[in-house]
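A student in our group prepared the protein record below, which I am reviewing. What it holds is a sequence and that sequence's fold in token form. My question to you is simply how this chain folds and whether the tokens agree. Do not assume that whoever made the record got everything right. I have pasted the whole thing underneath without changing anything:
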Amino acid sequence: MPELQGQCMCGAVTLTATPAKDALGACHCDQCRRWTSSMLITFPAEQGYAALGPVKVHKSSDWAERAFCSECGSALWYRITLSGEMHGHTQMAAGLFENAIGSPLKLELYIDKKPEGYAFEGERRQMTTAEVEAMYAQPEEGDSQ
């Protein structure tokens, strides 16, 4: 996949990222809806992405952090901070990158939180709150997972 160039709404933050796959995801969780007033549309980024400018990072849950431009507030990325296999996994806000818009929507998270008026065409994997949160659950003591 080619490296993409992007920027926040005011242009103070510039980003470079390579999509890990040609696919977009939509998250309907409470936090993403509060953060964007809609859903967050992202693409998974390969390691080695870069952001220059006034980036502010907020620990938004026990397993993740969100980054935004401290000047205009544009959402930049969502990154997994939980130790383990998904640590560092980063979802870049697709709207910052003109070339990411043509990618197909392949995943919807927190589908049970999606407002009724939102509807996408086509087939895609859809995960409920329980399914998403199970991915991030800490193993019980003595659990070999």
DSSP finds two helices and eleven strands in the chain.
